[in-house]
Amino acid sequence: LASAALHVMHPELYWASVRTHVECRHLSANQGLHDMHRFLKHWALVYTGAAVMCNCNSPNHRDPKCLPEVFDILTSIGSYWHVVMCLTNLRIDLGYTPGVMVSYSGHLVRHMLRTRIVLTAKARQSVRVAEIRKTLQ
Fold first, then answer.
1. What is the helix (H) or strand (E) element at residue 16, kind and residue range?
2. What distance in Å separates the CA atoms of residue 23 and residue 9, rounded to the nearest whole number?
């Protein structure tokens, strides 16, 4: 679902991510990195990383390891209804009920979250810098 949302929100970024994923798969096969090749073959996200955060109160912060040009996607899961996501430098507070998907540049937008369970999808600089920047220029 996060990949489909990215395809709608930012098609160029989506296709740059798909190309990078395919290139990483070919590179891992050519270099004999069999475990990595097998994992990449089954990785469904166009993002390079995913994490589940549970019972988390994140302080007001930015994500310096994420690309400024890339949208992170966070999805609230569970049964907790009184959660707020604050995008502080934009002065936006969002009701963050289960099923809500929020996307923004974690590198540029200061954010804090008090939540129970959240699924995050992020693209890290070390994997995608060259391909994404080339595509977006």
1. helix 11-30
2. 23
For 117, the 3-state DSSP assignment is strand
Rounded Cα distance between 89 and 108, Å, is 9
User: What tens digit of pLDDT does each residue of 114-124 get?
Assistant: 766 777 777 65
pTM (predicted TM-score): 0.69
Q: Which of 66, 20, 64 is nearest to 43 (CA)?
A: 20
Strands of 33-100 (E only): list them: 49-61, 72-76, 84-87, 92-95
Name residue 7's amino acid.
H
The pair of three-digit structure tokens given for residue 78, joined into one six-digit string: 């569970």
CA pair distance 119, 98, nearest whole angstrom:
11
| CB burial readout 73-90, b (16+ within 10 A) else e | bbbbeeebeebebbbeee
How many CB atoms lie under 10 A from the CB of residue 118?
23
Under 8 Å between Cβ of 120 and 56: no
Averages of pLDDT over runs of 10 residues in the chain (137 residues) are: 85 85 86 87 79 80 84 82 88 88 90 75 58 52
